[in-house]
Amino acid sequence: MAKIDAAKIEEVLTRSIDTIYPDKKSLEDVLKSGKKLRIYVGIDPTATYVHLGHSTNYIILKRFHELGHKIIVLIGDFTAMIGDPSDKSATRKHLTKKEVLQNLKTFKQQIGKIFNFSDKKNPIELKFNSKWLAKLNFEDVVALASNFTVQRMLERDIFKKRIKENKPLYVHEFFYPLMQGYDSVVLDADIELGGTDQTFNMLAGRSLVKAYQNREKFVITSTLLENPVTGEKLMSKSLGTGIALNEAPNEMFGKTMALPDEAIIQCFIDCTYLSMGEIHKMEADLKNGINPRDLKLKLAYEITKMYHSEPIAKKAQEYFIKTFSKKEMPSEDEMPGIKVKSQNIVDILVETGLVSSKSEAKRLILQKGVSLNQKLIDNWQGIVKINENDVLKVGSRRFVRLKIK
What we know:
Tyrosyl-Transfer RNA Synthetase; globular; Rossmann fold; alpha/beta; Structural Genomics Hypothetical 15.5 Kd Protein In mrcA-pckA Intergenic Region, Chain A; about 400 residues; 3 domains; six-stranded mixed β-sheet
């Protein structure tokens, strides 16, 4: 039996929630009956990190787990190789099995910053959909496809848009919602949770559960982390943006501080454990003229504390204030020492890990975002002479002390 706590049930059905299918009242009745439900969230390892946008769903799952329900974290290692067409104006790049395996290496560790995978009283399961999807034969796929019409597939907004813009729409892209839908059948899921961009896929699963098991599957769509003014996603793996759950503390704090002011309240709601009462008070403070920076400092502190610790969050806050607000140089023990052997500044930036690619290094140099010993570097093709303990700075808050190999 699951716990029946009216206040917690109301929170799990409203906080960060967009829509519940078929309706909120039906799910509320089941939750208040005390029936233990099987609830899952799927994530495709199309990048090496899990970001704050994903954390919203895991925090919601954590609330369900605290009520005593069965939680499943599904890793879409097979579906990642197909590529989810959701919200994509072009066909996704196919990933190889090797790339997928490389990407998911630390997923459990990252998600484990929210969940306790060691809980023996109500164990949280971690599953991989390659276990069943890789075993389907062509006959199985045809049987799955027979549950959907082409007209229904073409109802999908992104498919309509591509056809209108005369962009390619490949047959294999129709397979993705079939595969994700079949996950619900295999997992015997009572509830599937995902962002609003996953609505079509999750409803496909609802149809398959009805067809194969003759029962209802609830679908819960959660709010996406978006800029409320521009509508742009704040976190996106495909765009390489966002704040990773395994981000270094100073980076996590600094990136949170760089979020737009208008997104502060939504981030508190979707990404922290603060109560709605506290958040409503901060929302009122904003309307009454409080400096948004003060609330953003609190947001950055709360998020860094969640994924590291309170002492580390305090140090990250001190580091941010010192290096960004006061524009001071961090102390030697606050800067990692990294050995380099290159003399080309672009290669040095990549070697130190301050950038992920040479193209990013070039862009930052051209944007006047790189300096050596407080002297601006403006030539990305330049050769620089490195001395022991030289300080390389990228942006407003990333520093390293260079060591010679």
